[in-house]
Amino acid sequence: MSAVVVQVQSLRYTPAGIPAVNLVLEHESTVTEMDTPRLVKLQLRAVAFGAQAETLSRQGLDSVCEFHGFLANARNGKGVVFHIQDFSKT
């Protein structure tokens, strides 16, 4: 998923000592639905762990990146969180 980093919280550590960072990503694209172009725009909460977290915590806002990962339920069961497994700057 291509997205812009719009919010990065401070780097933190899990109880096991693993670096973690929470982010908010913003995605915008145009897709075709029933032969009609549709603008898709959304903000998505995200989290990264380990080396990815350390790198993203230093990333500037408005950085456009290609993110790879998976969606999971948020810990409180409200909404989803995108778990970033890999990313590259575009």
UniProtKB/TrEMBL annotation:
GO molecular function, one term: single-stranded DNA binding
Database matches in SUPFAM superfamilies: Nucleic acid-binding proteins (SSF50249)
Family matches, as InterPro entries: NA-bd_OB-fold (IPR012340), Prisomal_replication_PriB (IPR023646)
Gene Ontology terms describing biological process: DNA replication
GO terms for cellular component: replisome
NCBIfam families per record: PriB_gamma
Record protein name field: Primosomal replication protein N
Organism: Hydrogenophaga aromaticivorans
Gene that encodes the chain: priB
